[in-house]
Amino acid sequence: MSFFELQHKDTNSRARTGIIHTDHGDIQTPIFMPVGTQATVKTLDQTDLQNLPAQIILGNTYHLHLRPGEDLINDFGGLHKFMNWNKPILTDSGGFQVFSLGKQKDDRQQSVIPSTNSGQALNGVKDPSRSDKRDSSSTPQNDKREQGQLVSIDEEGVTFRSHIDGSSHRFTPEIAVEIQHKIGADIIMAFDECTPDNVEEKYAREAMERTHRWAKRSLDAHKELSTKNTRDYKQFLFGIIQGSVYKNLREESAKYISSLDFDGIAIGGESVGYNMKATADILDWVFPLIPENKPHYAMGIGLSPTDLLIAIEHGVDMFDCVAPTRLARHGMVFVNRNIDEKLRINITNKKYAKDTGAIDPDCKCHTCINYSRAYVHHLFNAGELSGMRLASIHNLYFMLDLMNQARTAIEQNKFGELLKKWI
Question: Does the keyword field hold Kinase (predicted)?
Fold first, then answer.
């Protein structure tokens, strides 16, 4: 049985459905993956995730390496057993977080090495939906120490300081892959340089070519470690396309990454998921060049429900983003377009204090079936953590249910109708 099984293709777009086969279960695509950065999806436990139901969750190598450490997780038999999750898990390589630490906009717009003033987090702005699309807890704005130079890069890899205690750490392609093997996710990622979208083409090319060399090293390390695998399940490795906002570089990267023996293809970079116009352009550039028989993963997409549909229209099978749960913790909950054109409301607004209706009357999540807007509003107003939990359950269910709608629409060749309904 192949890792990825293509099932249906939309006749008017690149939208498609498929099945990813792993030893921890099948994943129906297209699929949104809730982000469990530190072996937990914030405010939820694994029973909540099972009840959504989530097919797969994402963990973060950077955070799990810093605490509790990959060796401890490995001693428990891997992340599945450590966190009591029996479905598939994907881990990113930690590259996004490492390079977020080093993001700096200097006059030349070429350096990823910060000055002694480490600045703000990647995409760090006040609106919780527009901050770091993957995870902000690793970024300098949350660092309580003046770290000075947080990141330094060389051909072999990256040296960085922990945002927790300032201790020095080293990631190379080989180390990042070994950490992920110890963590034990079903799907792991090659180590890459996550290139900002504001760099000049010269630096973007240098970073892309370094990413290509690291991709080959990641693949070689994965193959060697796989021969020594003592687990009773297989791990699959994805390569990552980079190239910033430059069409020629993205196309070159797509061709090179596709030429290697990866199990899946990911599209990375700062602009992916954050700037959907740029994201759509990048997807248009690369998708004619990447293999159809492998899953396509756009990293960091999910700030808005419509972003998922745009990505699906362009041929994406997998996406992840912290926004649904981060928004929920700030009282921002998703609704259909008939309720609000922006597809979300702020449940903390006093106008919901006596509202007897569900957050979204069409939603069948645990929150909407059992609780009123007034009750959820009260929980936030009272500072009760259960308000964050109920809002997070709703937002994740909303995204996962939209994926169900997308899969059904593609199978019935009605994806265009679904797009018109939402966009």
Answer: no
Q: What is the pLDDT of residue 114?
A: 28
93 belongs to an annotated ligand binding site: yes
Residues 115/104, Cβ–Cβ less than 8 Å:
yes
Assigned domain for 375 exists: yes
The single residue of 10, 48, 92, 263 carrying the catalytic annotation is 92
Report the domain count for the chain: 2
Active site residue 320: yes
Residue in 48, 320, 360, 401 annotated catalytic = 320
The alpha carbon of residue 294 and the mean position of all alpha carbons in its chain are separated, in whole angstroms, by: 18
Looking only at the bridges linking them, the beta strands covering 25-29 and 31-33 are unpaired
Residue 236 has pLDDT above 60, yes or no: yes
Query: Which residue range(s) make up the domain with 351?
Result: 329-415
Residues 380 and 317 in one domain: no
Per the annotation, does 321 bind a ligand? no
Q: Is 394 annotated as a binding residue?
A: yes
Coil, strand or helix: which one is 124?
Answer: coil
What is the CATH classification number for the domain harbouring 287?
Answer: 3.20.20.105
Is the full-model pTM beyond 0.85? yes
- Mark which of 274, 295, 325 sits at the end of a domain: 325
DSSP secondary structure letter of residue 238: E
- Which of 285, 310, 325 lies at the terminal end of a domain, its last residue? 325
Confirm whether 92 is a catalytic residue.
yes
365 labelled ligand-binding? yes
Q: Any binding-site annotation on 180? A: no
Q: Which of 98, 106, 105 has the alpha carbon at shortest distance from 134?
A: 98
